[in-house]
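Table 4 source record.
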Amino acid sequence: MSVHVRFETPGELADAVYELVQTASKSGAIKKGSNEVTKAAERGNAKFIVLAEDVNPPELLAHIPMICEEKGIPFGYVPSQEFLAKEAGMPKGVKTASLALMDISKAAQETFNNVVDQIKAINE
């Protein structure tokens, strides 16, 4: 496991996280890249943080889970930077190491609650 990865993410959970990203990107409620995500986490205004597991170097994201835990922001992992960027509606061939979901729509609230509950269960 990489330095920034705190827990194993089952495939179904990663799929649900990708679904949340798709929904948030349609409304434009996302921040992209480790600098923007770090700022959103430090300010405590992100609703959910998504980190890619295949980041190189992994130290790029090592500080983000600590900030999330300190601020009480739920966070999860997905396997691929490239697929994360694709699900966020970014151009083909672009990668993103992390995203901050700034708002959860009413339509995505049930999926969001389910994802957060599954992550809490993994970490207990």
